[in-house]
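thought: user wants a sequence for this fold. calling inverse folding tool.
action: design(structure=
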């Protein structure tokens, strides 16, 4: 258990870094060109992909594929940590975590393959390339970028299970509940802007979670299975509940 918890803590920090990288590219490359806006012709978005194919490939690879792969590890580590104290919630949370991982990995693969198609088409038929980009945009957003329902559910359920388990990181789990609810709210079209709150909040949550998991790995001598956020040096014993 100690080994997986340490790996899970590292995974959480990697997840935070993928978000930081994603926001950096968005603010410095994507937003400045108004890429993805439906207020500009589709051909202009296709032209952007032609001019920025490499950075967009790396962006999609990191924020989708790498994020999804690492998320599998983190979801399993959290499942191991929480299942004794809150087995039912932990199982459901893990299911949503793995579903989210699959969706974002698929998003990245579709985005990069679709980008190659758009770039190839643009050389011979810019209008057709624009139409292909429009289709690609809908598919990628539908899979993993348009709203954060699945991710929000995972964060919310993990945080609720962690609150039930107890420990010294209650503020972290309360933050997780707030972030999870923010993710769910993105399902309302008029409130999609809250997606930025979800993403920025996750950076803080992942970093905090990673530190807690690395510094508070449960051990037989200092804590019982299923505890969360306990620093072994504190020697805190937590009660176990059942769902």
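)
observation: tool returned 243 residues.
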């Amino acid at each position: 258990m100690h080994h997986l918890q340490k790996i899970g803590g590292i995974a959480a920090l990697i997840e935070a870094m993928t978000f930081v990288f994603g926001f950096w590219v968005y603010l410095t490359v994507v937003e400045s060109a108004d890429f993805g806006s439906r207020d500009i012709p589709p051909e202009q978005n296709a032209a952007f992909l032609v001019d920025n194919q490499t950075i967009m490939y790396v962006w999609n690879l990191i924020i989708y594929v790498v994020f999804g792969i690492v998320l599998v590890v983190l979801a399993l580590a959290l499942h191991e940590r929480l299942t004794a104290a809150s087995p039912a919630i932990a199982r459901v949370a893990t299911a949503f975590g793995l579903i989210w991982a699959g969706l974002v990995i698929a998003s990245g693969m579709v985005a990069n393959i679709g980008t190659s198609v758009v770039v190839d088409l643009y050389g011979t038929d810019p209008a057709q390339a624009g139409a292909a980009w429009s289709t690609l945009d809908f598919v990628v957003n539908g899979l993993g970028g348009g709203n954060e329902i699945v991710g929000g559910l995972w964060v919310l359920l993990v945080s609720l299970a962690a609150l039930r388990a107890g420990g010294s990181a209650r503020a972290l789990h309360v933050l997780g509940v707030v972030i999870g609810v923010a993710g769910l709210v993105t399902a309302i079209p008029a409130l999609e802007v809250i997606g930025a709150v979800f993403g920025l909040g996750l950076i803080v949550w992942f970093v905090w979670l990673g530190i807690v998991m690395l510094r508070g790995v449960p051990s037989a001598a200092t804590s019982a299975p299923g505890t969360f956020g306990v620093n072994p040096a504190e020697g805190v014993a937590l009660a176990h509940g059942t769902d």
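thought: summarizing for user.
answer: Here is the designed sequence. The chain has eight helices and no strands.
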